[in-house]
Design a protein that fits this description.
The protein has about 130 residues and is an alpha+beta fold. It contains 4 helices and 4 strands, in the order H-H-E-H-E-E-E-H.
């Protein structure tokens, strides 16, 4: 990355509302869903626009579909018909090709990064296997 002067890395939260809470970093799904409702994604899907502006080669999602996030909102942001070619590491990670405009992006969905367990077993090994068959 240094030689090419290409630092393609971004972290993006699905909700732009602050999740300040006394109970730590626990996701406030009511607040997340309120943000998605307030965003009126049917009018302007600026989350998809944000992804398009970032031009990612890989998207890593943190267990979005297994969460309490509104499935209708997820379908607007990530329509199921935009996903093809699923590969999986059973019960750990999934990889698809995600069509965003004219681009195909590798899309990984795995555990949230705060999940307790082995980083090697839950993240590194599954991602390397799915992306590089190693």
């Amino acid at each position: 990355m240094v030689k090419k002067n290409h630092y393609g890395f971004a972290i993006m939260n699905i909700s732009k509302y602050s999740n300040d809470a006394d109970n730590g970093a626990t996701a406030d799904f009511h607040l997340i869903n309120q943000f998605l409702k307030d965003s009126d994604l049917r009018k302007r899907n600026f989350i998809r626009e944000e992804i398009a502006l970032l031009e990612p080669d890989i998207i890593i999602a943190a267990n979005l579909w297994e969460s309490k996030i509104c499935k209708e909102s997820l379908e607007l942001i990530f329509p199921s018909n935009d996903f093809t070619g699923q590969r999986t590491v059973e019960n750990i990670a999934n990889l698809w090709n995600f069509q965003l405009g004219s681009r195909k992006i590798k899309f990984l969905d795995l555990y949230h990064f705060s999940t307790r367990g082995s980083d090697k077993d839950l993240f590194y090994d599954p991602v390397m296997h799915l992306l590089f068959n190693s």
